[in-house]
């Protein structure tokens, strides 16, 4: 299965359904199943700011107990769209979603759907870009 490593707390926000777009500096033509891997690095400073702190706390998370170095969810990458000047100026997509990503002009918003957190996260070493994990079927 294709995997994408995402730093914390953003990986957990996706797994919780609080973040529906992953923003990247590069686009992809890939559409399909995508596992979400929580990287080893946790941005502890951002975890202490709002709305991150409140959203994470609602689920019992802090900067100190976020999973790292693990595949934590599966999803379907449904779309990838470039952020336009107009969208950037209007603060698209709005709300916490806008705060949780980098929607500057020229970046790309990857729409994640059908996110399912894994009941038992799978330890794995992440990589840059897409990478493959041999099996995820039945491990949810």
From TrEMBL:
SUPFAM superfamilies, per the entry: PUA domain-like
InterPro entries, sorted: ASCH_domain, PUA-like_sf
Residue ranges of every copy of the ASCH domain listed in the record: 4-89
Name of one Pfam family that matches: ASCH
CDD domains named among the record's database cross-references: ASCH_ASC-1_like
Protein name: 2-oxoglutarate dehydrogenase E1
């Amino acid at each position: 299965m294709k995997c994408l490593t995402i730093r914390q707390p953003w990986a957990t926000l996706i797994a919780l359904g609080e973040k529906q777009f992953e923003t990247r500096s590069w686009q992809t033509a890939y559409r399909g199943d995508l596992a979400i891997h929580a990287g080893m690095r946790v941005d502890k400073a951002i975890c202490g700011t709002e709305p991150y702190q409140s959203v994470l706390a609602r689920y019992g998370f802090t900067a100190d107990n976020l999973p790292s170095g693990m595949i934590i969810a599966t999803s379907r990458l449904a779309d990838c769209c470039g952020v336009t000047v107009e969208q950037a100026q209007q603060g698209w997509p709005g709300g916490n979603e806008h705060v949780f990503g980098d929607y500057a002009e020229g970046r790309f918003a990857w729409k994640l759907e059908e996110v399912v957190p894994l009941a038992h996260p799978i330890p794995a070493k992440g990589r840059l870009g897409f990478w493959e994990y041999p099996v995820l079927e039945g491990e949810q």
